[in-house]
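Q: what does this look like with flavin mononucleotide bound?
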Amino acid sequence: MEGVTDPVFRSLVLALHEPQGVPEDPLPPKGLGGAFTEFLRVSVHPRTEKDVRRHTGPRASAIPVGLQLMGNDGPRMAESARAAVRAGAPVVDINFGCPAKGALKGCAGASMLQDPGAMESLVRTVARAVEDESNGSIPTTAKIRAGYDRADRVEELARAVEAGGAALLTVHCRTRAEGYCPETDWSRLERAASTVSIPVCGNGGIERFEDLERMRQETGCAYGMVGRAALGDPWLFSDRTVSTQRCAEFLLDYARAIKASGPVSYRGIAGRLKQLLRLWTAGDLVPTEAARKQWLTESDPQRLLERLEALAGSTFLLPQPS
Ligand SMILES: Cc1cc2nc3c(=O)[nH]c(=O)nc-3n(C[C@H](O)[C@H](O)[C@H](O)COP(=O)(O)O)c2cc1C
């Protein structure tokens, strides 16, 4: 999730889960089968292997992490996809869902939902490049929203992605116009899943472990994708409850890993922790909205870390700032 997640956070979350292997059919409730990076924007220049490596970070888990590209120029996207394969990406994904102004102005992301023909052609160009560069060993996938302004063409959008040669389609059930509204309509996922024969991964509104299986049962989606809820509960992909102490340890591990990954101030670390605390649901770390406010309004970064240390029973072990 662009601007929120990063390789450091992703590695910590993946480390909490067992690799699953290829799921069977019918699909039993499993765990975390894979993840995608936040999008890597392809605009004026194609992305290089170095860009891709920096974006994905070191490979720390056997769980595959697909590299997501966002752009609209076929040749540049294809060259970036080839670089992704050379950099070791196990999957290359195309973003057709981002509703941000920058993406729309550049006619990428969700903007492309207005032109299924262009989507199909972009998927085809990228899929051919990936197939060629990887000798057919790496799949190309794509993520769409249910529509631009309305969801009445979700079947057409799903067909475009399949016809372009994607091996998997992720559908975020909200339209571009609906943004990240609280309401979700999973019947759109069912419509997409029953239209195409490639596996569909449903997304939108999964809040707890049970929702993953419910989504698959109600919609026929082969997989479920979790967005924001995983920021507040990194254990969500397994049926596990965790203690408050474990939550505090996780957040301190995250703080340490951010610190180890490059120069960053205490304030920067606290800011990143607050992005998670804003949505935190695991354990009893944030039992009430008043408690959430206390975490989020803590203006002294060191005090925030000390509160976590007290709950975790461990120290942050950072050198004192000069
Ligand atoms: C801040 C933010 C950044 C996001 N960045 C990306 C991204 O880079 N790539 C992507 O495919 N989806 C991105 N998303 C969308 C989520 O992956 C997901 O589709 C969306 O939040 C709906 O799922 P949810 O209801 O489980 O949160 C982003 C969402 C948010 C709120």
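The pocket of flavin mononucleotide is lined by residues 1-4, 38-39, 68, 95, 97, 143, 172, 180, 203-206, 226-229 (CB under 6 Å). The CA atoms of residues 196 and 228 lie 27 Å apart.
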